[in-house]
């Protein structure tokens, strides 16, 4: 079992930046693939970014490509999401997710069902 705790959310003006952190504990050896999802009120949870165990493979939603960067520090059991040039449409609860699978197929990493563990989420609000 893996426990995930997100932090770093808050209120920011459009064009600003935030960095989210996800601290993993428990059986972290099972956290092969990590991802950030977000869910706005009334909308489905969607992938923001995902990263492989080594950090060598990443995938981003088209809407955040070039603005967000996902990274991980396995020694610290932490995954980060650096967000720049934030837009009001980025407003959502951001969730950290982990998969026990080391595989990184393009389609699976974008699906909620591709992850086994989830954090409670951290609110990101971007004002215009």
Question: Explain this structure to me?
Answer:
The protein is mostly beta strands and 128 residues long. The chain is built from no helices and eleven strands. The chain has strands spanning 2-7, 10-13, 18-26, 33-39, 46-51, 58-60, 68-73, 78-83, 92-99, 117-118, 122-127. The strands form two sheets. Strands 2, 4, 5, 6, 9, 10 and 11 form a seven-stranded mixed beta sheet that branches. It has a four-stranded antiparallel beta sheet with strand order 1-3-8-7, with no helix packed on it. The chain is globular. 34% of the residues are buried. The model has no long low-confidence stretch (mean pLDDT 93).
Properties at a glance:
128 residues, mainly beta, 0% helix
The residue ranges in which pLDDT falls below 50 over 5 or more consecutive positions are: none
Overall 3D geometry?
A: globular
The residue fraction in helices comes out at under 10%
DSSP, total strands: 11
Q: What's the gyration radius in Å?
A: 13 Å
Topology as H/E string? Answer: EEEEEEEEEEE
Structural class: mainly beta
* Strand-residue proportion: over 45%
Please outline the major beta sheet.
7 strands, mixed
Mean pLDDT level: 93
Put simply, the count of helices is: 0
Q: Give the termini separation.
A: 40 Å
């Amino acid at each position: 079992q893996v426990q995930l705790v997100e932090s770093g959310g808050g209120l920011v003006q459009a064009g600003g930046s935030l960095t989210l952190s996800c601290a993993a504990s428990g059986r972290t050896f099972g956290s092969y693939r990590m991802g950030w999802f977000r869910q706005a009120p009334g909308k489905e949870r969607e992938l923001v970014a995902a990263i492989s165990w080594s950090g060598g493979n990443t995938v981003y939603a088209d809407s955040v490509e070039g603005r967000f960067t996902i990274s991980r520090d396995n020694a610290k059991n932490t995954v980060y999401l650096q967000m720049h040039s934030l837009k009001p449409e980025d407003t959502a609860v951001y969730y950290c997710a982990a998969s026990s699978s080391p595989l990184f197929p393009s389609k699976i990493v974008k699906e909620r069902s591709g992850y086994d563990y989830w954090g409670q989420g951290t609110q990101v609000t971007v004002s215009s």
